[in-house]
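Writing this down once: the sequence line spells out the residues, with the fold written below as integer tokens. I am pasting one below:
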Amino acid sequence: MTARPSAPTAVDVVAAALRDELAARGGGAAAARVLDVGGGSGTWAVPLAAAGCEVTVVDSSATALAVLRSRARDAGVADRIRAVQGDVDALADIAGGADLVLGHGLLEYVDDPAAAVRSLATATAPGGAVSVLVAGRWAAVLGRVVAGRVAEARRLLADPAGRWGPGDPLLRRMDTDEVRTLLERDGGLVIEQVRGHRVLADLVPETPDGAAGAADLAALEELAADTPPLRDLASRIHVLARRPARP
């Protein structure tokens, strides 16, 4: 279970959602506790640690965790990152109570996504948030059509798991309804935000020239992220959900 999270970019509604979530906690004395499941080499963990969070990364790849430790040292945040080798099942052995739990690029690879979501929810403190980023089914169909791989697109569209064949590296792709249902039904979580990640940015043939072009693309992406059906055609679907606080 080595997840392959999408790297943060200038056009990144996910990074913005995480910043907003951490900002909403206020500036208390205790650092936010973050659990990054399948966090690999620290694409998300290192920036979060640099922002002052205490981050635990769980990943099955010793190589990825070695890269994480090196990146953390280079960034001066090694004291705020803990690396644990294991998969999502290892969460049962990790103290719960995380303020923010990440499952980015996770559900596409696990054998049992419902069990994985339950583990993410259990590891979250009451009132804490779960951030899930999953490969979008419809974007994969359109991408293969544009590339001229029509047979793969047909198989992907017809397959219940959204796969194009036995050689597909992903076990599944999801649409917005599927991921919402998983988090609500199996995790007992309350959905707060569903957004498309890189809805249109991947369709732009070249990087826009200059600050004005980049700003236009960022504004377009921000708007499309919340606009169905464009949102549902995104390369990845981002959902922010919350574990209900205790009564």
About this structure: The chain has eight helices and seven strands. The domain at 13-136+174-242 is CATH 3.40.50.150 (Rossmann fold).
